[in-house]
Write a structure and sequence with these properties.
The protein has seven helices and nine strands, in the order αβββαβαββαβαβαβα. The protein is of the alpha/beta class. It has a domain at about 10-150: Alpha-Beta Barrel (TIM Barrel). Strand 6 (about 130-135), helix 4 (about 145) and strand 7 form a beta-alpha-beta unit.
């Protein structure tokens, strides 16, 4: 199955290339549960489409872009105005499969902070106040994004992921925050190892999926 959009007409293809429409999976106002911005109110925009292929992904329904409707970005902006959101997290799927210049321009016009979570596997587009690089072994980040990342978040699924995390940490800038996050289904098994690792390597911090603990989106 192709995880990129297909069977588009010329008008849709043009609008997608310009970033005027995006395959929107879901949008919701909640509390950021992970990483540096944990605890902050934010409006999430989840874009469909991902070919990175993490076997432990907890949002596999986002992978196939073709099942998510192409939505005008100005409509997305109108939708978030129903809430008190001052920050927006663009996530996926892999949001950088698409041109994000238009949506971030509209968000900045509304004085909304722009955050993105990305594997870094595609070229960076858009204007961002915060870039969370969630580097994946299956499709490694492009070199260009390492220096721009504000936060590196590595999901720990097994012991080999600590080595991968250190390799990634050597590539980001000196002011990039470093996080290790247990894969949710193995959190009870992995947390003691992550705690011990962070105590021995204090440049790292622990990220937990707090939204799952408190049962919010």
């Amino acid at each position: 199955m192709s995880y990129k959009l297909h069977s588009l007409n010329a008008e849709q293809t043009s609008a997608l290339a310009k970033g005027e429409v995006l395959p929107l999976m879901e949008e919701f106002y909640t509390i950021q549960g992970e990483g540096f911005n944990t605890g902050k109110a934010a409006y999430f925009i989840r874009i469909g489409g991902c070919d990175v292929g993490c076997h432990w992904c907890d949002v596999k329904e986002s992978w196939d872009a073709n099942v998510h409707p192409l939505t005008k970005v100005d409509q997305i902006i109108k939708n978030l105005q129903n809430y008190q959101a001052k920050s927006v997290v663009v996530t996926g799927g892999e949001p950088l499969m698409y041109n994000l210049n238009s949506i971030t321009r509209l968000l900045k016009e509304q004085n909304i902070e722009t955050f993105i979570e990305t594997s870094g596997a595609y070229p960076l587009s858009g204007t961002w106040d915060w870039i969370c690089l969630s580097a994946k072994k299956t499709m490694k980040p492009l070199d260009e994004i390492y220096s721009k990342a504000n936060e590196l978040k590595v999901i720990v699924y097994n012991q080999n992921d600590f080595k991968w995390a250190e390799e990634q940490a050597q590539k980001v800038g000196p002011n990039c925050y470093l996080y290790l996050q247990p894969e949710w289904s193995k959190r009870n098994e992995l947390l003691p190892h992550i705690i011990a690792y962070v105590k021995q390597h204090p440049k790292w911090m622990i990220s937990l999926q707090t939204h799952k603990y408190i049962n919010i989106p």
